[in-house]
Amino acid sequence: MENLLRRSTMQAVTKKQIGRMQERWVLETDRTAIAMRQGLAWMMPVFFMVALIAYVIVRW
Question: In Å, what is the CA distance from 32 to each residue of 13, 20, 29, 57?
């Protein structure tokens, strides 16, 4: 009887852990996507400012 109780408890714990791992992966993927977009949001204006300065220097 105790073995059966232990086994069911262990299965419940592993199912909880698996659920948490899946949630963690989703959160990490979302966080990575957000960080990538933030990096792109910073790089685009910087690139265009450098390109504008280069254009002005070449035309001058």
Answer: 28, 18, 5, 37
Q: pLDDT digits over 2-37, tens only?
A: 565 555 555 665 666 667 777 888 889 999 999 999
Rounded Cα distance, 31 and 20, in Å: 16
Predicted structure pTM score: 0.56
| Residue 41 CA: distances (Å) to CA of 34, 38, 48, 57 | 10, 5, 12, 25
CA separation, residue 58 to residues 12, 28, 31, 44, 53 (Å): 68, 44, 40, 21, 9
| Tokens linked to 8 | 């069911």
